[in-house]
Amino acid sequence: MSTARHYGMDWLRIGAFALLIFYHIGMYFVPWGWHVKIAQPLEWVEIPMLATNSWRLALLFLVSGYASAALFAKLGGSGAFVRSRSARLLVPLLFGILVIIPPQPWIELVSQHGYAKSLGAFWTSDYFHFGVLDGIVLPTYQHLWFVVYLWVYTMLAAAVLAWVPVAVRAKIADGAARLLGGFGLLIFPMLWWILLFFVFDGHEDTHALIDDGPAHLHYLMAFFIGWLLRVRPALFAAVARWWRLAAMLGVAAFAAVATILILWQQGLYPPDWARLPFDIARLVQGWATIVALIGVADAYANRDHPRRAMLAEAVFPFYIIHQTIIVVVGWWLLKGQVAALPSFLILVAATVTGCWLFYWIGRSIGWLRPLIGLQRR
To answer: What is the pLDDT of residue 271?
Structure first.
């Protein structure tokens, strides 16, 4: 296993979290259900949203798997790895649930369910009643479900590393690397996702952890391949060989997705068979795009920059705070009946500014650092 840092994977992680922030800004405008919506949603926004919808979360788990493997190698033991991951994930998760998240369900209740209490009254009376209020489970972790899932996956990895002998783990890693070492890197994960689609037909991600088995099988594969890329870096040779083909395949698959969506939006509903190629094309596009992005990161971004370390540190605090900023600002834009274009520009400016302030203030105050996902100085 190489100990050299792959800067391209750092940049890919930074880009993946930045994309997530813009995706959640887009959720204010599309017709899909969300915490707060513009008064007149825009159907055309569904097309660029779907361009990332099938791969953005899996990519986050893949780069997190890579980073987790690097951290385990640095710490050198399962116990230290568990303590480090738990401190860096569970502490900000609890802080987020208690302090950061509450405005989101309150705004959803006020704007969509006629809830009359103030935020303070909601926070002190209804938020912690551990039940369901107008279909919303309270208290809640909302967008921080990713942190919950990531902690569970890292604990599973730690258990394997602690209980499975090194020789057995090496054989498993070698076998997986051989399977994925050629064209298999492109085809086998794709086939796995398609198999899950057929076996668990109709399942939609719940983000509720215990009833989300198909989603775990979907995301764990990405997490494992990210880990494998770190412990068997020779796999980057397969990425280098196939990422251009993967990029073309991803573009072609998305063309099919966008075409079918446009037909649906125009009322030209295809026969029932169009649903199946739509879903399959999304899965093909998802994994092909991930391989292509890893290839681009490996070929063109595997170099350091003076800002890289700061940006890599900032992405987790950005992730913790960004959605609350979007929901709060979106609510005020909705109340002010602000049109779509200025709403978008205001949301981008407010979210970027708010995230930076959250990070810069938090990083400079020692006791706040662990609460926003940063190491103690």
So the answer is: 66
Please say whether the beta carbons of 80 and 315 come within 8 A: no
3-state secondary structure 141-186: CHHHHHHHHHHHHHHHHHHHHHHCCHHHHHHHHHHHHHHCCCCHHH
* pLDDT exceeds 90 at position 90: yes
Pick 202 or 36 by higher pLDDT.
Answer: 36
Residue 34 CB contacts under 8 Å (≥ 6 apart), including other chains: 27, 28
Q: Give phi and psi for 271, each to the nearest 5.
A: -60, 170
Neighbours of 332 (CB within 10 A): 13
pLDDT value of residue 202: 86
pLDDT (tens digit per residue) in 59-78: 999 999 999 999 999 998 89
Closest CA relative to residue 223, chosen from 293, 286, 288, 153: 153
Q: Which two tokens stand for residue 313?
A: 């540190």
Beta bridge partners of 133: 136
The torsion angles phi and psi of 41, rounded to 5 degrees, stand at: -60, 155
Question: Token pair 């971004």 is at which residue?
Answer: 301
Distances (CA, A) of 137 to 43, 120, 132, 286, 331: 29, 18, 4, 30, 21
**pLDDT, tens only, 259-301:** 999 988 887 776 677 889 999 999 999 999 999 999 999 999 9
Which of 92-101, 175-184, 288-297 is predicted least confidently?
175-184
Distance separating alpha carbons of residues 348 and 239, to the nearest angstrom: 33
What SS3 state is found at 226? helix
3-state secondary structure string across 10-37: HHHHHHHHHHHHHHHHHCCCCCCCCCCC
In whole angstroms, how far apart are CA 337 and each of 37, 206, 334? 11, 32, 5
Query: Tokens for 120?
Result: 């303070």
pTM metric for this prediction:
0.96
Residues 6+ apart with CB under 8 A from 242: 183, 185, 186, 291, 295
